C-alpha cells in the first residue's frame, strides 16, 4: 500500500474535516483548499462507500444547523429589513455547503451528484419558505405585513446561490458581516 493509511492519510483528513465542519466549524478558503485530492483509484470501493455516508451525514447535520439558525434569525427579526438581512446572510452558509461538496479534490462524478443533491435541497427549502409565507395570509389585501414579508422573501431568495460557481466561492475568504460602531468615523466639514 502507499502511504494512504499511514498517519490517517487522505481519507482521514477528509473525515476529520467533515466531522468538525458538520458540527459548525467555519471553513476558510485555506482550510478547504488544504484538503487532499481523493482520486477514485486511491480508495477501495468500500472506503468510498463509507466516505459517501460520512459526507452525506455531515451535509445533513450542517444543513440542519444552518436551517435552525435561519429560522431563529428570521423569527427574531423586528422588521422586514432585519428579516431580509437574515435571509441574505444565510446564503453565506449555503455557499459554504456548496463549496464543500464540490471540492475539486473529489472525483467529478461525486461532486456533480453531491452538488445536485444540495441544490435540490436549496430549491425545496425556498419553495417551503414561499409556501409558508403565502399560507400566513392568503389574501395580501387583508394584511400589509403579509405583502411586506412576501416582498422580503422574493427580494432575498436563497436560490440566488445556485447561480454562483461554488469553486470560485470556495477561493474567497469568508465574508465578515460584523459591524463595530467604535470603528466608524465621521468626517466633519467646517464652513
Supply the helix-strand structural class: mainly alpha
The unreliable regions are 1-7, 176-182
User: What percentage of the residues does DSSP assign to strands (E)?
Assistant: under 5%
How many beta-strand segments? 0
Strand count, sense and barrel status of the largest sheet are: none
Radius of gyration: 21 Å
Q: Looking at the structure, what is the overall shape?
A: elongated
Provide the helix percentage.
55-70%
Number of helices: 7
Gap from first CA to last CA: 78 Å
Give descriptors for this structure.
191 residues; 63% helix; disordered N terminus
Structure notes:
- This protein has 191 residues and is mainly alpha-helical.
- Helix content is 63%, strand content 0%.
- The chain is built from seven helices and no strands.
- It starts with 8 loop residues before the first helix and ends in a 20-residue tail after the last helix.
- The model is unreliable at 1-7 and 176-182 (pLDDT under 50).
Q: Can you summarize this structure?
A:
With 191 residues, the protein is mainly alpha-helical. It has seven helices and no strands.
List the helices and strands and how they pair.
Blueprint: H1 9-22, H2 29-33, H3 45-76, H4 80-101, H5 108-136, H6 144-155, H7 166-171
Amino acid at each position: 500500500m502507499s502511504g494512504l493509511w499511514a498517519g490517517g492519510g487522505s481519507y482521514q483528513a477528509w473525515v476529520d474535516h467533515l466531522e468538525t465542519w458538520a458540527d459548525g466549524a467555519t471553513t476558510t478558503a485555506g482550510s478547504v483548499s488544504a484538503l487532499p485530492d481523493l482520486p477514485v483509484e486511491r480508495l477501495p470501493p468500500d472506503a468510498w462507500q463509507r466516505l459517501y455516508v460520512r459526507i452525506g451525514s455531515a451535509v445533513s447535520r450542517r444543513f440542519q444547523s444552518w436551517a435552525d439558525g435561519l429560522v431563529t434569525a428570521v423569527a427574531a427579526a423586528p422588521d422586514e429589513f432585519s428579516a431580509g438581512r437574515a435571509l441574505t446572510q444565510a446564503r453565506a452558509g449555503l455557499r459554504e455547503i456548496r463549496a464543500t461538496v464540490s471540492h475539486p479534490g473529489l472525483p467529478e462524478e461525486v461532486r456533480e451528484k453531491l452538488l445536485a443533491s444540495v441544490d435540490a435541497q436549496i430549491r425545496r427549502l425556498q419553495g417551503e419558505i414561499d409556501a409558508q409565507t403565502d399560507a400566513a395570509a392568503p389574501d395580501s389585501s387583508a394584511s400589509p405585513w403579509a405583502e411586506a414579508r412576501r416582498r422580503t422573501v422574493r427580494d432575498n431568495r436563497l436560490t440566488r446561490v445556485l447561480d454562483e460557481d461554488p469553486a470560485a466561492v470556495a477561493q474567497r475568504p469568508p465574508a465578515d458581516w460584523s459591524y463595530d460602531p467604535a470603528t466608524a468615523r465621521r468626517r466633519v466639514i467646517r464652513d
